[in-house]
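Module 6 notes. Inverse folding takes a fixed backbone as the condition and produces residue identities as the prediction. Think of it as a translation problem where the source language is geometry and the target language is the twenty amino acids. Below is one complete input and output pair. Work through it position by position during the lab.
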């Protein structure tokens, strides 16, 4: 005689399968570097980093840069390789104050990562970046004001 009924076993197996599938790609991608005050009338940009061991499909994901009352969405596409970088550019028409919070939102609308409120008023070649790449303790200490390293490691 089984201690667990067939329905409970089926539900438990389905739940474990769902957890396994969801963990394959969610939570592996983080906001790695942010340029909110670009020099020479450049565009704002956000660099993503895949901390995981598998490629992540970014189709349907988006970045939202929010500086009340302004918000700039950037649609994402393509894939990001394991330990790889992906840079998303804002629009050249965006006029930002150099302040903002950046959100990474997956295809289901879940906020996967977000920065603290950042301020970059100098319009120079410095950005906020994680050091080392992908550092994620969910605190302000994850981000340092550093020389821009768009599309490559912040550790160089």
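Target side of the pair, the amino acids:
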């Amino acid at each position: 005689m089984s201690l667990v009924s067939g329905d409970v076993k089926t539900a438990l197996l389905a739940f474990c399968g769902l957890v396994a599938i969801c963990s394959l790609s969610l939570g592996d991608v983080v906001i790695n570097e942010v340029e909110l005050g670009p020099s020479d009338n450049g565009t704002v940009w956000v660099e993503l980093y895949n901390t995981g061991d598998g490629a992540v499909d970014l189709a349907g994901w988006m970045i939202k840069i929010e500086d009340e009352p302004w918000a700039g969405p950037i649609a994402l596409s393509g894939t990001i390789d394991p330990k790889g970088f992906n840079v998303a550019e804002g629009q050249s028409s965006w006029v930002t104050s150099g302040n903002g919070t950046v959100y990474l939102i997956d295809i289901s609308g879940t906020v996967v990562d977000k920065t603290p409120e950042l301020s970059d008023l100098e319009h120079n070649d410095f950005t906020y970046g994680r050091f080392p790449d992908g550092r994620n303790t969910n605190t302000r200490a994850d981000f340092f004001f550093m020389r821009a390293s768009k599309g490559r490691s912040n550790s160089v």
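Reference fact for the lab report: The CA atoms of residues 6 and 30 lie 40 Å apart.
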